[in-house]
Amino acid sequence: AVAVRRGFTSLCGQRRSVQAAKCLCGQRVAVRCIANTAWAFATAGHPSPLLFDAVARAGCTSICLRPASINSSRRIHRRCCSTRLHEHLWPALANTAWAFATAGHPSPLLFDSISSALISSTRKQAARAYLANTAWAFATAGHPSPLLFDAVARASAASIDQFMPQNLANMAWAFATVCHSSPALFEAMSRASAARIGHFSRQNLANTAWAFATVGHASPALFESSALFEAMSRASAARIGQFSPQNLANTAWAFATVGHASPALFESMSRASAASALFEAMSRASAA
């Protein structure tokens, strides 16, 4: 009788494992489908409110799915709906957040669901681009999730030397935008940025300077190193004609805020600002 009961228990356990596997697979498919749809419409520049509302509802349901057939087993539910699932879905969840932020479609409940799903799975599973994109999306959407940003900071600091310039700039901008201080991350980003500053685009240069000044992290490695400062000045001067008025204003503000005057950089920015069509228009408007 004992052997029969053990056999029955084992069989039930196997069936629950099969159900869990099916649940896991089904959730992956659903979340990826939702992410692909949102990404496609955002990328195409067609932020249909009705579609994004429907996607948000479906996303919340899929991310937090708890099938009735296995509700009785918390262990199996955790296998389906916790870290194991979300480790495999970083791209989909990050892309969903990116799509909603890009489309400018607010969905606090969806962002809360994504945040909760990702907080426990930022150790080694998230690729660098997804970490940066997630931070950027939450900042752009105006949804500062402190616990998520703490988790992203820890995961990013461990692999920051492998971040591309765009990832570094986006990460710094995102943390500064939501006013989330992370000295360890910014110190790591300052070293990584210093090593790659020659490859930063004009937008990356302006955003990085603005971000570090905004969080009050006047990193010696980023702002006070003579060698780096010269490299940053040369990189900016080479592209100064491409700087937008916003880039110029942000860069000037950032370097002044951290107390690093840089005569050469300010001289090049002064010429670019004087030649800017926007400043000319402002001058004409003031004279009228």
TrEMBL record:
One of its GO terms (molecular function) is RNA binding. It comes from Chrysotila carterae. InterPro entries: FAST_kinase (IPR050870). GO terms for biological process: mitochondrial RNA processing; regulation of mitochondrial mRNA stability. One of its GO terms (cellular component) is ribonucleoprotein granule. This is Uncharacterized protein.
